[in-house]
Amino acid sequence: MSKSKGNVIDPLELIEEFGADALRFTMAAMAAQGRDIKLSKQRVEGYRNFATKLWNAARFAEMNGVARDENFDPLAARVTANRWIAGEASRCRNTVTKAIEEHKYNEAAASLYQFAWNVYCDWYVELIKPILTGSDEVAKAETRACAAWAFEQILHLLHPFMPFITEELWQKTSVRDHLLIAAQWPSYKGLGDAKADAEMNWVIRLISEVRSVRSEMNVNAGAKIPCVLVGAGAKARARAKTWEAEIMRLARLSALDFADAVPAASAQIALDEATLALPLEGMIDFAAERGRLAKELEKVAKDMSVIDGRLNNAAFVAKAPPEVLEESRELRAQLEAKKAKLIEAVKRLG
Questions:
Q1: Closest Cα to residue 190, out of 269, 321, 89?
Q2: Rounded Cα–Cα distance for residues 112 and 61 (Å)
Q3: Burial of 167 by CB count in 10 Å (0-12 exposed, 13-18 middle, 19+ buried)?
Q4: What sign for the dihedral angle of Cα 232, 237, 239, 241?
Q5: Under 8 Å between Cβ of 150 and 120
Q6: Side-chain half-sphere of 195: how many Cα atoms within 13 Å?
Q7: CA–CA separation, 48 vs 34, rounded Å?
Q8: Distance between CA 288 and CA 214 in Å, rounded?
Q9: CA-based angle 327:328:329, to the nearest 5?
Q10: What is the pTM of this model?
Q11: At a CB cut-off of 8 Å and minimum separation 6, what does 240 contact?
Q12: What residues are paired with 271 via a beta bridge?
């Protein structure tokens, strides 16, 4: 942006197309110490989508009666999901505060993105939908107040990075007597419940692992599959029963059962002391799937070999521009992660 006009991306054009907030957040997210920023429209567009996600979360709240309750105390929450999100908000606040104080803005941005998009929008909102539409009025009232409180914390913490949309949502989601820019930085004491954290993280891991297997094994996205918990202890059985409806809905399961032995033709996933078994006979061709995975592993190995050849070549490293070296190393890391997933998928086929 500091070079001659016409030689680089014009920030005013990016702001016109994606908004100032998206550009600000992109710059913060990429501002790792000692790193040259490689700006692209695709990156800015991705964070524009993040802003849209926040707006949609506010609309969801409005449609489900979620509103600010001045008397709400997160320390007094009784619903497990609410105790969990309160603890997550506290941990995010601590991480963001420390990162800002140490001028590690990329770490602050990453923590905010993870909490707002993944934790709040993707998990908390999905897990509380049955409560918001259920018949337990006490749990419903607490969850509405907690969802509003947690969203308010997101606005507080995001404001230095995305001031325009957070100020707009601050005014639209409740009647306020001051602007967000004049609000005090959040400070919490005593938030965090180890029991709630363990339970919710177990549920999220279970659903995530099932989704990963479905994707890795090319299971039809619309198909519902059975899931068997093998060797589950009393705590795991209790959690599965408590969250059965949510697990089946979010993992697209036809059944969630318990057994002492792994059923035949099952993909297997370790989950603490238990094994998640997904009987996939008739849904996928195991032999064909092994062949497909083997071909993918072979291709990944070849691609890694090519990159290793470049990075191990002293002449190439000495002459290549820094951005080319960084791009090669990033691609190498992506291929390494893909290789690990493919190997895990092969193991699950047995």
A1: 89
A2: 19
A3: middle
A4: positive
A5: yes
A6: 5
A7: 26
A8: 16
A9: 90
A10: 0.82
A11: 206, 229, 232, 247, 256, 258
A12: 274
The residue among 310, 322, 307, 320 whose CA lies nearest residue 38 is: 322
Return the pLDDT at 39: 77
pLDDT single digits (tens) 67-105: 999 999 999 999 999 999 999 999 999 999 999 999 999
From the list 147, 152, 269, the residue with the least C-alpha distance to 215 is 269
Spatial neighbors of 156 by CB under 8 A, at least 6 apart, are 180, 183, 185, 186
pLDDT value for 62: 94
- Distance (Å, whole) CA 332 – CA 164: 37
pLDDT class of 255 with cuts at 50, 70, 90 = very high
Any idea how long the chain is? 350
CA distances in angstroms from 64 to 58, 150, 293, 334, 342, listed in the order given: 10, 15, 44, 40, 41
Q: What would the two tokens of residue 254 be?
A: 């036809």
191 burial via Cβ count (<10 Å: 0-12, 13-18, 19+): middle
d(CA 150, CA 263): 42
d(CA 319, CA 211): 44
**Measured between alpha carbons, how far is residue 277 from residues 103, 229, 261, 302, 340 in Å?**
45, 6, 9, 32, 20
Strands (E), 168-306: 225-230, 253-259, 266-271, 274-279
Are 155 and 174 a contacting pair, CB within 8 Å? no
Q: How far is Cα 3 from Cα 11, in angstroms, rounded to an integer?
A: 12
Bigger pLDDT: 84 or 288?
84
Tokens for 70, please give them: 């001045």
The pLDDT score that the predictor gives to residue 133 is: 93
